[in-house]
User: Fold this.
Amino acid sequence: MIKFVLMVNRQGQTRLSRYYHSVELSRRAALEADVVRYCLSRKKDQCSFVEYKDFKVVYRQYAALYIVVGITDSENELSIYELVHNFVEVLDKYFSRVSELDIMFNLDRVHIILDEMIQNGHIVETNKSRILAPLTAIDKMVES
Amino acid sequence: MALKIVKGSIDRMFDKNLQDLVRGIRNHKEDEAKYISTCIDEIKQELKQDNIAVKANAVCKLTYLQMLGYDVSWAAFNIVEVMSSSKFTYKRIGYLAASQCFHENTDVIMLTTNQIRKDLSSPNQYDTGVALTGLSCFVTPDLARDLANDIMTLMSHTKPYIRKKAVLIMYKVFLKYPESLRPAFPRLKEKLEDPDPGVQSAAVNVICELARRNPKNYLSLAPLFFKLMTSSTNNWVLIKIIKLFGALTPLEPRLGKKLIEPLTNLIHSTSAMSLLYECVNTVIAGQYSCSVGSVCLRISVVKYLGLLAMSKILKTHPKSVQSHKDLILQCLDDKDESIRLRALDLLYGMVSKKNLMEIVKKLMIHVDKAEGTTYRDELLTKIIDICSQSNYQYITNFEWYISILVELTRLEGTRHGHLIASQMLDVAIRVKAIRAFAVAQMATLLDNAHLLTGNMQRNGICEVLYAAAWICGEFSEHLENPVQTLEAMLRPKVATLPGHIQAVYVQNAAKLFATILKNQEGNTDSTAAQETSQLMIDRLPLFVQSANLEVQERASCILQLVKYIQKLQQKDVEVAEEVSALFAGELNPVAPKAQKKVPVPEGLDLDAWINEPPSESESEDEQPKAIFTKEEPKHSRPRHTEVDEKELARRREARKQEQANNPFYIKASPSSQKVYQETPGVEHIPVVQIDLSVPLKVPGLPMSDQYVKLEEERRQKERAEKKKKEKKKRKEKRSGRGKKHDSGPESEEDITPAHVVDIVTEEMPENALPSDDDDKDPNDPHKVCDIQGNLQDGSQVVVSVIFENKSDSFLKSMEFNVLDSLNSKLQRPEGSGPHDGLTVPFQLPPGVSNEARFVFTVQSIVMPQKLKGTLTFIVKDSSTHEKLDFKLHFTCTSYLITTPCYSDAFAKLLESGDLKSSSVRLEGVNMPFHHLLARICFHHHFSVVERIDSCASMYSRSIQGHHVCLLVKTSGQTVSIDAKCDEPTLLGNVLDEIKQTFSQC
Assistant:
């Protein structure tokens, strides 16, 4: 099961956070800071899977942005690693060459995309066009 | 009113939206907190307005601030307001905020129930979708109970978009409100076969999660999943299904067999690493014997995981891993040290006679290249570990091994000089055929000691000289040029070596001296001998002045001796014989437990008091080992008297037999120049003939590489010869089966070792074995084991247990406990309960062994017994309680006591008719008859009564006085044993054990 998804930049600023199990607000900040520091300290040629406390962290770096996913022991690390890339590909398709700014200014849309892909800590959809279908429908609705 | 609306929209134009907020925060880097607090104030103002658009905008900003870590719980009610907006764009913002901010204890959630229900049944699928997504984040037990039915209906919604979300959220509902599971399950199962793959995937996800908690209930779904597994193309779904099967197979073993095919197909076809990894993991966990080999090859792209997986496979399917040797060797080049070390671990397990040389050669190359002493040291220890494992099982050419060891001494800065030294000593002592070569190498090493000494002081490599000096001294008869070696050993520079090495130098210089004298006295020229003495006298005073007590003592003693010898030499007295007598006698290796093998001589009772026991214990000692005192006096022969010639000869023969069979006794090996016998048997192992054109004795240090080549040639020759023989046979037989594998790969058995190896195995006496090695975890760091027993007395059995601490920690408070059976009970001190453990009366520092004795009472001895027991102890450093399980095996043999019997008494016994008979046949026993008899005598405590040609009668007695008589006959490879005993069960068991002894060899 996926416990949380974070998007953080090199400076350690959170650009997106989504928790699939309840974590107190006060503890979220500490956890994010800790996990991010952990990931940032690792070199490029080091493994992308890290064991952190009672769960595992899978992270992937895209330019200055890190996508960090916390998972339970029972999850397949490599599948999450591939999911992260899938997520970025979807973002890339929607924003056409996604950048950190896109994510900052369209946070609600990124959330919709993420919610289409992961619900409840489980992967629901991985097909790009099907993920984006509701979002394009909403966009049309807003325009009209 | 109209004015108000206009005012509202004008206000909005000046309001910040989310983009402005983000931009603003970026522009106020210095006073971010202050800026945000003003923003929050603005948001509070906006939330007070009636305009829903303004509120939604405010809530949107709050969501962002919440992400940054600001508490926005005060706005919960406003979020609910926005959620209930009829416009989808605002509703969405409300739900997003709710999903981020709400948790189970948010009290406004109660207010949302009706709103959510309304949204769930909305005709707009996106309204429903957004409600479901939001609900999945903040569902409470109350919400779950109230909405379970609504969601269940949605599971059969016409739109797959809704169906899949509804299915997934059901999992959360099940968790919060377990009662809903039973009514919802049939529908959930249905969804596994939904036409839409997204819904299928959702259902698989939910069931996998459920099954992980309680796999048993989901076994019935296996066929359905099986179908999905073969039809689905979504890797993420496949991974889940495979995970599910991983949880199910332990419950239903038949499933494993069925899975092999689809799993193999997936392994071969998929390009996704994640799926591949999942498959391999499941395969390993289930230990299916599918084509694991190919898996490793591909998985090894993810090197570390691959290596890890391989080490698991290695335990079950060593063959399939061995074929990837090259790949693993490549991993040694990896930058990452953890990968290199893993690869090394693997290599250890995959060497064989065939590839050992090659692997070690590669490792040697790595040793040369390796940077950093820790890794190099690790390599060094691994090389030695690999070579010496299971008593040098894989080494076929010891000259090669010695060369490797010598090459290793050239490593700079290694800490493992001691390890190399002990290996050299071990090999030189135990492998007789290698001694001449080893001595030559060691002499070179001593001669070139200065090359090593340069930086020897700091590192441990000088330990090697310890071994070199000892080997040269002990086996000095093999030395080519002993005088030169003696010279090398007495160089002044030696005095800079550590004390214990100097001591060995001095002592062995004396041995060398003795050999030299012996050589030189044969010559006519007596001056040479005197010169040697003079050399000793000149050089030794250096050592006499040594600060090390040991060196000093030995040196001064030997110096005086040499001075005396010189005096005699000047009088032309022949002294060589006497001097060499000082060091006469061959040193043979003895297993640490060899003493146990020596039977206690008849009439000697180690437990009996030599003097009168102290008065207070007299009453307790009422039964002083009746077994020996009850013995009929005619059986105990007087010793040292009336031993006639015949008897002597018989004894000599018996001793020879015993020696031939004693693994601790090293026989004089036959001439070491025999090449390629016609019949390769155990005794006729061909010994390599070393081509002398290959410069083995080049001055300087040897190269091991040449052996790889030599060995290859040797094997080829052997193979060729074998093939010839095979062909001949085939021609003779003229079997119509056609060709079988003619040039198939060389199998393990085909390789015969180049040297006769007298290897001391640490065999245990057959009395009470600590059986079932697999009961013990070989990886247990605190391995305390070696349990041996001695059986005595009619009903009492004394088991002596050797505790050996193989860990690095101090062990204390050991408690020994055995689960009593009806028949055998551990004797516990009075007042303790029947399940209490006995305290072991000592503590164990690391590496120390000690023996403790425990008394058991045994009622019936006719059946073998296995007692389970545990040893608990405390590890001092970590003060943790640890446990070690073991089994005590009382074989029936161990109740037998070797008792001599005369043939007339034996005949009477057989005639008496009280004995029941039984017999057993052993097939394929390929050993001389006297070996066979010796083996039975030794392992099963019998004595030979009479022997006529290939027939012998044997006798033994149990501790309870049962007579056991055997008649052993042999013809060809078949041995038949007819046996008689007054207790048929005992007899049957003893015969079984005898059979087992011979099946092991």
Notes: The domain at 785-890 of chain B is CATH 2.60.40.10 (Immunoglobulin-like). DSSP finds 40 helices and 14 strands in chain B. The first helix of chain B runs from residue 2 to 14. The longest strand of chain B covers residues 865-875.
